[in-house]
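[step 3/7] fold_predict: job queued, chain A
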Amino acid sequence: MMIVKVVYMYTPLCGTCQVASRMVDVLEQLLPNITFERQDLNYVPDKAIEWHIESVPCLLIFKHGKLVKKIYAFHSVPHVYETLRKLAE
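[step 4/7] structure written:
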């Protein structure tokens, strides 16, 4: 398995982020070999600019330290799970 890290970007007052956060909780349990990190976008505005984040919630997927994919639409846990699983192969 390749080294994969997922950074979940959110803001605390975002209702959609609250739903997405629960989905990330499930994904963390299903994908123990992937490192998950959570960052409140309010505290890292420089990263929002660096990574060109358009909206929250956002999953940033890194392989070997390089940003390879952004996910804005968390359609379902199975959808995001399959995307992450494929990228981690």
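[step 5/7] annotate
Strands lie at 4-10, 35-40, 58-63, 66-71.
Helices lie at 15-30, 45-50, 77-87.
exit 0
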